[in-house]
Amino acid sequence: MLSKTHAISFYFNHNVKPATTSHTNPFAKSISSLKVVWRKDRKLDQAIENDKRYKLCARVVREVLNEPGQVIPLRYLEKRRQRMRLTVKIKTFLTRNPGLFDVYYDRIKPKTEPVRFLRISEGLKEFLEYEKRIYLEHEPWIISKLCKLLMMSKDKVLCADKLVEVKRDFGFPNDFLVNLVPKYPQYFRLVGCPGEGQSFLELVSWNSEFAKSAIERRAEEESRLTGIRVRPNFNVKLPSGFFLRKEMREWVRDWMELDYVSPYEDVSSLDQASREMEKRTVGVLHELLSLTTHKRVPVPTLGKFSDEYRFSNAFSNVFTRHSGIFYMSLKGGIETAMLREAYKDDKLMDRDPLLEIKGKFIELLEEGWRRRAEWLSLQREEVKKDMEMMATKNGIEDRYACDE
């Protein structure tokens, strides 16, 4: 039995033609009958763990920013801890993450006793201005992402409320439907009122430049650099120690020989259970993950778009069936689909330009953590000095007592 890493490369690099009889041809079997056992990838799980603290801080910040005037009584925020999935008290959170908010006293109602309020700090205000500049700088990229999502859908239309739910996954600004979409009537038409469940974003015109997937662009670039025509296909990298049954190795080998089906092609004539449709589904999922800022997205989030992107009810099996392309993490009790080629160990290598925003936010957090660490160090030094002075004083008193 070959290891998972070598099994794929062996079959892809040897031009072995599959048998055509139904007895030996793996395609004669139903795709759903081909199983690959899920295996934990600790390094990719760690990539999710690395962002845990950042995401928690971002949730708390969003909660305050959504308040009128961007201020909130501390006790009101304390009541929302469960919704924010915050396991410590707000006071503890503020102590551990200084620099995000300022605490001040004000009255909730006239003639009531002043209580503690939170407002965003000067550092956070500067970050928000920086965020606006990055969104403006990369607006063409955001527009292309939005067009691509619509162009891959079967009717070239998506529910606006669903798009709002995934805005952070794809790096869209909070107000993209209100302030961004209307600026591009040549691409978009918004029907209905977002938030009422009957609002849709429609594609107005098709841009052929946007209709190139990440895989097709990569093949074009390789062809340009080498002078040799490169056929678009998936990068397959199976983790070491992973084993595939012979039947599955043969299936993957033959499946890779199929022509690549662009996620932007019309596939209305394809049978949902066909191997070509499987190729197309993998292509769509690959492209969707490529468009996300972290090259990963919760599987339930993708499931909300099953109808729009023609996914089968069992589409999540694709992530384990094609374990050399995807990884499905179970970290935190949430199924998260990840694009293997975008990562090296636990580090994201394929970086979306919108991640500059995350980088700046982390700088703000780290500055606060650094100041807190310095303050704690000074406190420890003060305690140490006090203890030394106390010990010296006690020693002197003991000597006086002995002399007497």
From TrEMBL:
Region forming the signal peptide: none
Domain PORR: 40-369
InterPro entries per the UniProt record, alphabetical: PORR_domain (IPR021099), PORR_fam (IPR045040)
Highest taxon above the source species: Eukaryota
GO MF entry, a single one: RNA binding
Coiled coil residues, start to end: none
Pfam families: PORR (PF11955)
PANTHER family xref list: PROTEIN WHAT'S THIS FACTOR 1 HOMOLOG, CHLOROPLASTIC, UBIQUITIN CARBOXYL-TERMINAL HYDROLASE FAMILY PROTEIN
Name the UniProt record assigns to this protein: PORR domain-containing protein
Annotated source species: Carya illinoinensis (Pecan)
